[in-house]
């Protein structure tokens, strides 16, 4: 039938992710390109973004043990890693699988089409010179990519020493990552204003955040309880979600746990917590697939709404004279036009983009040059949402399992 | 000199508290009575309020171990105490020193001039029938009075079963108390909406609040950490102070700590925490004296401002006709009149009472019947603040030390 000819034949697909990649290119991308969805929000997706492994981002004030944590999981030092009591890691480092052991500078990674980091070019060369990719052959890196980050400094230092938009970069990684580990050190507990801003920049990705109270064997039990309590007290305020964040209490490095301070129960607790964290890390790939499907579907819905809005604005333009004035009026009353689109296509107001941002993006365009509504493009996306994606889910197991 | 004749001779005073009591009756009360300060805010102080021992209020959801806690500190059961797994204590019980062991019903206590509880009559007889005083001879009760309370129930039960203003009563006790212990049980951690309201009603007395995570030996260490973290997370939001509340983690009953579950470190931790809590309780009397001086001085300042406002309003009234209209105008523009008083006497706007409440209280009066400014009454309070109180502090040690 004509219907099935439009559908993605499952036999040609190798996995859910492969299926999404093909669906994107065949069915969603044409709609996005036609109505310039990329200029109004998210850049077009690249194949490398579909192929990217699940990512774990490490964040924390300096010297909380982020680099040590990654090396501990890898049971070896990643190429170019530095560990020390003073601020050591001075850049964002993506630690990923590769055939050779090597470091690639940020400017090079950003232009590589087979890497999902081209979006970072918007943060400028002063950022790219503080960005690096560290590759090595490692069984764990077959499944997970880690992102090590420079420690958050206290206010003034932070501002003077970073020549780029630090929280912006963190937001970018937070959106792409599958898990965000916030590391704390019981000796440096106070959550600096800078770190609060960093945590706030994770908004919208709260469900990915886990907290690690590291080096817990460095203080006695009573101190540990104070420190832990104070941490929860202030995190509860900063994160502002009713669900309590999971905190792993332990000491995540290669050495045996120091039971001179915490005692045997400390050791037992920390070992249990370490096991829990490891099994959470093992779950990431499984969850990453669900997350990607979910985000893909959300993106498709947003792209459809965008197409409805753009084609509606085009339709409202006069055919002959008074175009400039009409465009000004449409932009000025954009919220009213949004309302019309909502009613015409029975859409929920909560799914609509932010009016202010949209108005700003629109102002760079000549509305008259936009495309009319093309029902076939919409139909392709509806088919994808209603048939192809459910079909993929029925025919393939989670590729990461 | 005429000046010294007005001052309180230190030789006639037996303690700081005795001095405050006499100063109140000789110097502050006359000002309060003249300008009806009691009708606009705080009732007149009674001698029994000065004589009252420092009070510790226990609050918590039902069965968290409040009654057990008091009996544990007393090393005996207070008269009329009930302990059990179901909601047991069904009333507010003031546990205080007395020559005989006995319980006195609320209606009787409320009318006793030598007891500081007459203010509770405003909560009506349905409250008074759920109020009791338990007296016994006990060395600890020589220094501290305990207030046991009925456990907070979950929403609906709370509303249907209490025929009086529960949070109002708790606010009343919170203001009079020197320490407020909030008890939690790791098995019943979830802070119900009702309990949130109770905690909110402690506002303004946040510095008196301490948290007890009781029965901590009933769960294993990993569970305890979860429970404790969740508690701090939600308390941080409810209490909304940047300072972390002190939490005592332990098991506060007469029996030995259950180290089958928590293990030896649990036992050690809980014993340290118990010691810390006991020494905090020992500090209460010392701190109570500072608190009372502080509150007394605050009250004196508020009474002076009240006198300035009242006498100013009186002065603004016409001497012959148009009194009703003038009164209406003054009340309508009360904020402007407050401004005039501020400027005339160089007072800080932050020290002024709430305009709305004041307007409401004023509406019951005939402003014309108020007293003019009596400088001698003001002078007496100024002398008290500037000379008598500092002199008391110089000549007496803290009576509770
Ligand atoms: N679990 C641990 N227990 C005790 N010491 C630790 C632990 N983890 C790391 N350290 C020590 O803490 C210091 C900082 O470690 P590391 O360099 O890994 O931190 P970092 O968070 O990567 O710091 P930066 O932000 O400066 O890169 C080092 O001296 C390291 O040996
Ligand atoms: N530290 C403790 N460890 C274990 N069990 C305890 C502890 N303290 C109290 N209990 C038990 O918990 C139950 C409730 O105790 P209790 O009656 O003292 O609580 P309460 O807070 O006064 O309750 P209510 O609000 O109903 O008056 C009783 O069965 C008591 O034996
Ligand atoms: Mg580092
Ligand atoms: Mg009780």
From TrEMBL, chains A, B:
Cellular location(s): Cell membrane; Endosome membrane
Q: Say where the protein is mainly found.
A: membrane
Looking at the keywords, is Metal-binding present?
yes
- Please name the GO terms of the biological process aspect recorded for this protein, alphabetically: endocytosis; endosomal transport; protein homooligomerization
Q: Source organism's superkingdom?
A: Eukaryota
* Protein name (record): Uncharacterized protein
**Annotated membrane topology:** Peripheral membrane protein
Dynamin-type G domain boundaries: 50-286
- Coiled-coil stretches are none
User: GO CC annotation: what is one?
Assistant: plasma membrane
Give the keywords, sorted. Calcium, Cell membrane, Endocytosis, Endosome, Membrane, Metal-binding, Nucleotide-binding
Origin organism is Lupinus luteus
Q: What GO terms are given for molecular function?
A: calcium ion binding; GTP binding
């Amino acid at each position: 039938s004509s219907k099935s000819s439009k559908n993605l034949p499952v036999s040609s697909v190798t996995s859910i992710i492969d299926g999404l990649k093909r669906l994107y290119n065949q069915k969603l991308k044409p709609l996005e390109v036609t109505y310039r969805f990329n200029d109004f929000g998210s850049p077009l997706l690249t194949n490398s973004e579909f192929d990217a492994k699940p990512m774990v981002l490490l964040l924390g004030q300096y010297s909380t043990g982020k680099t040590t944590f990654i090396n501990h999981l890898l049971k070896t030092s990643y190429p170019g890693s530095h560990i020390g009591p003073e601020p050591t890691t001075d850049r964002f480092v993506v630690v990923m699988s590769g055939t050779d052991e090597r470091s690639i500078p940020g400017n090079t990674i950003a232009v590589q089409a087979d890497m999902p980091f081209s979006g970072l070019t918007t943060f400028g060369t002063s950022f790219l010179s503080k960005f690096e990719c560290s590759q090595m052959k490692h069984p764990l890196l077959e499944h997970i990519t880690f992102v090590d980050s420079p420690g958050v400094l206290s206010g003034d230092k932070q501002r003077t020493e970073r020549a780029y938009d630090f929280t912006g970069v963190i937001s970018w990684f937070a959106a792409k990552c599958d898990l965000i580990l916030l590391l704390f050190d019981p000796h440096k507990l106070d959550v600096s204003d800078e770190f609060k801003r960093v945590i706030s920049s994770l908004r919208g990705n709260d469900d990915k955040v886990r907290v690690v109270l590291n080096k817990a064997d460095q203080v006695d039990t009573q101190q540990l309880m104070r420190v832990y309590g104070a941490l929860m007290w202030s995190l509860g305020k900063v994160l502002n979600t009713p669900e309590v964040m999971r905190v792993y209490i332990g000491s995540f490095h290669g050495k045996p746990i120091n039971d001179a301070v915490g005692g045997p129960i400390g050791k037992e607790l920390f070992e249990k917590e370490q096991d829990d964290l490891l099994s959470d890390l093992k779950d990431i790939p499984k969850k990453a697939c669900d997350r990607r499907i979910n985000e893909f579907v959300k993106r498709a819905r947003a792209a459809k709404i965008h197409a409805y809005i753009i084609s509606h604005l085009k339709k409202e333009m006069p055919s002959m004279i008074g175009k400039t004035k009409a465009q000004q009026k449409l932009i000025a009353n954009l919220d009213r036009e949004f309302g019309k689109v909502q009613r015409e296509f029975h859409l929920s107001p909560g799914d609509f983009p932010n009016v202010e941002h949209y108005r700003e993006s629109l102002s760079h365009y000549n509305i008259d040059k936009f495309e009319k509504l093309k029902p076939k493009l919409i139909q392709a996306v509806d088919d994808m949402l209603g048939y192809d994606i459910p079909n993929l889910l029925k025919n393939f197991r989670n590729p990461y399992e």
